[in-house]
């Protein structure tokens, strides 16, 4: 499931890089993740990740690998102008936090507006 999610994200960002999609990459990923077709799968991934966090001695390798993998992905999605490990981590943390908020409240409008505010504050964070 995680590999499918990663491939879907990479395909979406590749379309954006070719100029077919005009939104900021973070917003494209958000729209994909919160779409009714994709949401249940991503929700399950987050639930499993939360369970892994509760038992770090058993899942330390998974947690470290997952974190490194997504940081690498986020770095590759940032433009040269914006590429830094700190900004990649911040983008991931904002996405994670807002997705957890969406999972908890179902407030798609509010979480989407918060993401839009972050993208504006971060100067567009483009690929």
Can you offer a commentary on this structure?
This protein has 6 helices and no strands. The protein is mainly alpha-helical and 127 residues long. It is globular and about 40 Å long. The protein starts with a helix and ends in a 6-residue tail after the last helix. The mean pLDDT is 86.
The averaged pLDDT comes out at: 86
Q: Beta-strand level of the residues, as a percent range? A: under 5%
Helices and strands, in order, run as HHHHHH
Termini distance?
25 Å
Shape: globular
Q: Flag low-confidence runs.
A: none
- Fraction of residues in helices? over 70%
Number of strands: 0
Largest sheet: none
Q: What would you call the structural class?
A: mainly alpha
Mind sketching the topology for me?
Elements: H1 2-17, H2 25-34, H3 39-53, H4 56-77, H5 85-105, H6 108-121
Helix pairs in contact: 1-2, 2-6, 4-5, 5-6
Highlighted features:
single chain, 127 residues, mainly alpha, 6 helices, globular
Summarize the structure.
This protein has 127 residues and is mostly helical. The chain contains six helices and no strands.
